[in-house]
Amino acid sequence: MKRQEMVFDPFQLIDKKDRKQLTRRSDLMGLAYLCGHFSAIGCTGFLVYLASGTLLIVPAMFVHGIVLACLFAPMHECSHGTAFRTRWLNEFAYRLVSLVYISQPTWYRYRHAVHHTYTQIQGKDPAMVLPSPTTWQHYVEQVLGWRFWTTFPVAITKHALGTMRPQDSWYIPKGDLPRIYNEARFMIAVYGSVAALAVYFGTFAPLIYWLLPRMMGEPLQRCWRIAEHKGCDEGPDVRTNTRSTKASFLMRALCWNMPYHSEHHVCPQAPFFALPALNRLLGERLHPMGKSLLAVDREVRAHCIVSRAQADQIIAARKANNKSVDTSWVCALD
User: Fold this and answer.
1) Does the pLDDT value for residue 334 go beyond 60?
2) Exposed e or buried b for every residue in 279-296, given b needs 16+ CB within 10 A?
3) Which is the most buried residue in 35, 75, 207, 320, by most CB within 10 A?
């Protein structure tokens, strides 16, 4: 879908002069945020070390996990090519962060590009989170990250073996399949080497400082994914299909300003540090901003979840009217 073919052209919201100013990228800002993020990971990792042997290790690992899970933000930013002005720096950071966060860079880049093209359109948006009708089972699985942790190992193994899932093959250029397959092989080799070294040295360090905290922090990222779109219009109008949510300074920093998600969808070319200015410029012309992550979650649970019987009735009615229904859960990884 070209910008000119959209229900509403988002460029109508920003004049050319402002758009040029807001889309300027910066190596300095990217490095500052990335170094700050990894420094935070080092600090919380040290807290886990200090808490070793005590019950405090559980909350320490949880805090460490939140910072680790927030690596989704720089990974996402790098996928757009907006984290840094210098291309090689952006690509190096993208691959490094993807490896730590556990995500395939090229595959994610294409999935996310299609998400921006077909935002909130069932059957076309591969990253549509909790497409309606949503049941409590869907909600709990999404919040816990269950579908990611059970689906990603299968997907990356398929890629390493040289195959692509059918629901992904339509948007991946055939010329880039070898790159995706080789990335999967490299990542599996790295993860396998880490596991082998841990066994050889008899240490649980990779579990304690990386994998378990990463899993413990994932629900927070899943809640942000829900807040960004769930309860918004399921349609192509960028003004109403995405939600921004108020957040504390610390959370905005860890999430690289992604709580300003409506603004990001209006102008994906704008780097993360320009999103607050874009928010001030657009004002109330977008979907109303969520009061907080908890407030949005309460709203979703109160108004967007139905019983299994109701879901079956809704799906049957949509199919009877030849409407697109996403029953394949292609959003399982996002």
Assistant:
1) no
2) bebbeeebbebbebbeeb
3) 75
Question: Structure tokens of 271?
Answer: 């780097």
Q: Taking all residues of the chain, what is their mean pLDDT, rounded to a whole number?
A: 92
DSSP, residue by residue, 209-229: IIIHHHHHHHHHHHHHHHHHH
Q: Do residues 106 and 180 make contact, with C-beta atoms less than 8 angstroms apart?
A: yes
The CA distance from 128 to 80, in Å, is 18
Q: What is the DSSP string of 3-60?
A: GGGSSS-GGGGS-HHHHHHHT---HHHHHHHHHHHHHHHHHHHHHHHHHTTSTTHHHH
Average pLDDT over residues 190-194: 98
Closest CA to 138 of 329, 309, 297: 329
* Residues in Cβ contact with 141 at an 8 Å cutoff, skipping those fewer than 6 apart: 147
What residue has token string 């957040």?
247
Please enumerate in sequence order all residues whose Cβ is within 8 A of that of 208, keeping only pairs 6 or more positions apart, or say none.
Answer: 48, 52, 57, 61
Looking at the whole model, is its pTM more than 0.85? yes
Give the model's confidence band at 206: pLDDT under 50 very low, under 70 low, under 90 confident, else very high: very high
Residue at 108: amino acid letter: Y
| Residue of 241, 249, 250, 246 lying closest to 224 (CA atoms) | 246
Is residue 10 pLDDT above 80, yes or no? no
* pLDDT recorded at residue 320: 84
**pLDDT confidence band for 7 (50 / 70 / 90):** low
Cα torsion 217, 223, 226, 228: sign:
negative
